[in-house]
Specification:
The strands form 2 sheets. An 11-stranded mixed beta sheet has the order 1-8-17-16-15-14-13-12-9-10-11, sandwiched between helices. Helix content is about 35%, strand content about 15%. The chain is elongated. The protein is an alpha/beta fold. Helix 13 packs across helix 14 (about 425-440). The protein is built from 14 helices and 17 strands. It has 2 domains: about 5-175, Rossmann fold, CATH 3.40.50; about 185-440, Ribokinase (UDP-N-acetylmuramoyl-L-alanine:D-glutamate ligase, 3-Layer(aba) Sandwich), CATH 3.40.1190.20.
Length: about 450
């Protein structure tokens, strides 16, 4: 899968990668890369480098020497500058900054000028993206050898600005986390000659309570546009006339016939607009327990969701609020500790967890964690239902659940980015772009 996944390094993985190499030579390359980036982007600017005492500070001092920039020690006042080089902390730093460092970070934040961070913005945990206390809000980050996990996971991903990876002479290494690129979509199965609509992927979408029919319709339409050959919808009888009017291609069944409808399905999409009545919860449980179909559970299907033992793969797709409710914590905690929250969910549910947000985190017990960068365009009603339909389509095509979830997250974001207008984008616009995104991956 060369090029489909880009390694993301933790602090420990970077330390292992650097072992046995000439430290001074690596620092010279790192400092030179920072200097080159600053000189290229801010020619003639007055540069001040705020440098700590560790290796990151050493990289900053080398950059300052090459730029003819002023060096300021941590804790000292920040003089006027056009650009600040942040070299206070590197990948080994974690936890809340001490008083002097916090003072320098706040001075950088208040300077009102562009900031170029060395390796990671100071105050961001390179291994998790967590921020304890304060952190630098960089305009750009020059990171070394490979991107760090903390630059790919919020809140750290929101603080790094434009990320530039500089080669410092190290060999690639296996990592526990990886970024999903658009090339990842190349592994999606193609339709076979002589196949039929069921073999192309058959999806059953369950949801659509009165007043919430739009969700089930969006999920079904997305499944079709993600190349499923057959989609059926099971919804309450009183919702069926609305669903019938909106969906032309899908087969419609009353909710009480969902288990029977599952007999012709290759995957299940449970929850879009399902409602939170006790009957809805029991419907989800029955389908999970009495079928051996891979399933994606989203939205109302996650409400009061309990762990369930099953042989087929299950993908849960919560946003931070839904995951917080499942874990019994505050949504703010999930937002601040996204990888830790996913780890807790894996421990409890023992299935694939796709956490939506600034980036999408896809994790499964004992497997490499996959991270797909997102886009603010997806912050609009209905896009979660679209993602559910895409995951279900890829599951129906036989893709392993973790890979189906990761590929769906990438296709979802790429389709949003392909919409020709940024303002006023709606979920249906994303659906319309899916065929083109998938064709481009061939």
């Amino acid at each position: 899968m060369s090029g489909e996944l880009e390694p993301l390094y933790t602090a420990a993985e970077m330390k292992a990668a650097e072992e046995g190499h000439d430290v001074e030579a690596m620092m010279e390359r790192a400092g030179s890369a920072v200097a080159a980036a600053v000189g290229r982007d801010y020619p003639g600017a007055r540069v001040v480098a705020v440098c700590g005492k560790g290796a990151n500070g050493g990289d900053g001092r080398i950059a300052a020497r090459k730029l003819g920039a002023e060096v300021v020690e941590v804790g000292d006042p920040l003089p006027p500058a056009d650009v600040v080089v942040d070299a206070i902390f590197g990948t080994g730093s974690h936890g809340e900054p001490r008083e002097e460092a916090a003072r320098s970070i706040e001075a950088i934040r208040s300077a009102g000028v562009p900031v170029v961070s060395v390796d990671v913005p100071s105050g961001v945990d390179a291994s998790t993206g967590e921020v304890a206390g304060t952190c630098v809000d960089a305009s750009a980050t020059v990171t070394f050898h490979g991107e760090k996990v903390g630059l790919a996971v919020a809140p750290g991903s929101l603080r790094g600005g434009r990320v530039e990876v500089a080669d410092i002479g190290l060999e690639p290494a296996e990592t526990a986390h990886a970024r999903v690129t658009s090339r990842f979509l190349r592994q999606l199965p193609r339709r076979e000659r002589g196949g039929n609509k069921y073999r192309s992927g058959s999806v059953l979408v369950v949801g659509g309570a009165p007043g919430l029919t739009g969700a089930v319709c969006l999920a079904a339409e997305a499944a079709f546009r993600a190349d499923a050959g057959y989609v059926s919808v099971a919804a309450p009888r009183e919702s069926l006339p609305v669903v019938e009017a909106r969906l032309l291609e899908a087969v419609k069944r009353p909710l009480e016939e969902a288990l029977d409808a599952a007999g012709r399905a290759g995957s299940l999409a449970l929850g879009p607009g399902l409602g939170r009545a006790t009957e809805a919860k029991l419907q989800v449980r029955e389908l999970l327990e009495q079928t051996d179909l891979p399933a994606v559970v989203d939205a109302d299907g996650l409400f009061s969701f309990e762990p369930v033992e099953r042989l087929a793969g299950t993908v849960l797709t919560p946003h931070s609020g839904e995951l917080a409710r499942l874990l019994g914590v505050e949504a703010e905690w999930v937002d601040a500790h996204r990888l830790a929250a996913v780890a807790l969910a894996l421990e409890r549910y023992r299935c694939v967890v796709l956490l939506k947000g600034s980036e999408t985190i896809v994790a499964a017990p004992g497997e490499r964690t996959l991270i797909s960068s997102g886009t603010p365009r997806l912050a609009t009603a209905g896009t979660g239902d679209v993602l559910t339909g895409i995951v279900a389509a890829f599951l129906a095509k036989g893709l392993e659940p973790r890979l189906a979830a990761a590929a769906a997250a990438r296709a979802h974001a790429d389709a949003a980015l392909a919409v020709p207008h940024e303002r006023g984008m709606v979920a249906s616009d994303v659906i319309a772009q899916l065929p083109g995104v998938l064709d481009a991956a061939l």
